[in-house]
Amino acid sequence: MSERASGARICVPLCADDFEGAWQLAARAHAVADMFELRLDCFDEFARADRAPVELIQALRPFIRERTRPLILTLRPEEQGGWSHLRAEERARFWRELFARGEAPDFVDLELDLIEGLGHEALDWSRIICSHHEFLESPIDLEALYERMARLPARLLKIAVSVTDAVECLPIFHLLARARRDGRQLIAIAMGFAGVVTRVLGPAHGAFLTYAPLIKEGATAPGQVTAAELRDLYRIDAINRETQIYGIIGSPVAYSISPQIHNRAFASRNMDAVYLPFETRDVESFIRRLVHPRTREVDWRWRGLSVTIPHKSAILNLLDSVDEAARQIGAVNTIVVEEDGLRGYNTDAEGVLAPLREAIDLKGARVAIIGAGGAARAALWAFKREGARVTLFARDLPKAQPVAREFGADLQSLAEARFASFDLVVNATPLGARGANEGRTPATAEQLRGAGIAYDLVYNPSETLFLREARQAGCRTIGGLSMLVAQATRQFELWTGEEAPVDLMLEVATRALEKN
């Protein structure tokens, strides 16, 4: 057995129907795993109560003896997020027999309530991971849970809780700090996409390991990032307490390819930096508790943030200063974190114009913008500055009226819109974007017929329904990828003061979309 040297321990769960399948997974994951977790609750034979513990142990023995990485055994019940239908007493009987025969591998993951019912004399504490998984959305007292677990002499403690907002990850990092002070080894994880930050930054802040499947389909808990992504995209082995932190805040951000773009750019410049997705609805709490240098509760080396839907306008009141262009636009998509405060910028406006430079002369052009949110405001500002004649189209006219008035644009209802008289039609809504809005369009081919260029600011997927409808109507089309990269390169320059690797960023973005 050998253990891979790395800056962070990545434990790859092996969830298969039988031992042969687990061996195959282990062989494929060998290059990226520091440890394996053999999920016995995935095995058909461990899901039934009709086999004696001694039979199961005999079947398990070859895997334990021939392991090539440190091994965790787990038999997780359904109520703790696993697949085992065995009752607590049936699982307890298996574990007692395993320890009595001296067959336990490097680690055995036992749930807290099971340990408390097993009896201490039956356990080899040097191998025990005492765990608790909480899937309820209502908050629990993690400090009290930690103290209850810490009274046991288990080698490792593991706490995993479900979160729906990145702000809810704070208690996890507080627990990791406390465990360091107490001299206890802790695995602490926030489950769900909003908890990705705990899986990436956890080891640098004291977590004993982080779990990562070989492929996304092999995830054994919500929000797991693949082992390859942790190693290659987030460069987890190089992350430390001094690593510069960047990220994207919004809801949703799960389909953003900004982490791929910026992390590859940082790597090309050999920067000690990482860019993370932060799923957050409570942007005020996020900025106050995690980011602002005067109030944040974590000692992270923040340097910058991208801001996306729905926070581009709301974020204005949370910043210490805002660039004049961003103030005029009324939306911020870029934050530079400095020692004394937060500075806001808008790179969307430059990004919107970049793909159009060689496609159309905007001076005097008739431009239709669909939408009235942050992206629409940036587009309005940019096109008005270029001398275009702009009309705003919206479903909610009373809501859009102040926006149209502010930028001196005409306003029309989208419901009965016809775009034949326009040189350029821009979709500045999230309709068509990957996720809940996928497969939707703000305008049909019938509405778009006769228009010159149809430009979708949505970039993921690259082929939206809006663009398909536009081609059917005979329009030239432009997707949102070039706009995304153009605004991202400007973000990189604002954050780092260095010239952005534009060609690389475009190449990475293109590949990322092709994989979706």
* Estimated helix fraction: 25-40%
Beta-strand residue fraction: 15-25%
- Rounded to an integer in angstroms, the radius of gyration calculated over CA atoms is 26 Å
pLDDT averaged residue by residue: 93
Number of helices: 18
Characterize the overall form.
elongated
Question: What structural category do the secondary elements indicate?
Answer: alpha/beta
CA(first)-CA(last) distance: 37 Å
Biggest sheet character: 8 strands, parallel
Instruction: Let me know the number of strands.
Output: 20
Strands of the widest sheet, in order across it, are 7-6-5-4-3-2-1-8
How are the elements arranged and paired?
Elements: E1 10-14, H1 19-29, E2 35-39, H2 53-65, E3 71-74, H3 88-100, E4 107-111, H4 112-118, E5 128-134, H5 142-150, E6 156-162, H6 170-182, E7 185-191, H7 196-201, E8 210-211, H8 227-233, E9 244-250, H9 258-268, E10 273-279, H10 283-291, E11 301-307, E12 321-322, H11 324-329, E13 334-338, E14 341-345, H12 348-353, E15 366-370, H13 374-385, E16 389-394, H14 397-407, E17 410-413, E18 424-427, H15 445-448, E19 453-456, H16 465-472, E20 476-478, H17 481-496, H18 502-515
Parallel strand pairs: 1-2, 1-8, 2-3, 3-4, 4-5, 5-6, 6-7, 9-10, 9-11, 12-14, 15-16, 15-18, 16-17, 18-19, 19-20
Antiparallel strand pairs: 11-13, 13-14
Labels describing this entry:
single chain; about 525 residues; alpha/beta; eight-stranded parallel beta sheet; six-stranded mixed beta sheet; 18 helices; 20 strands; about 35% helix; elongated; disordered N terminus
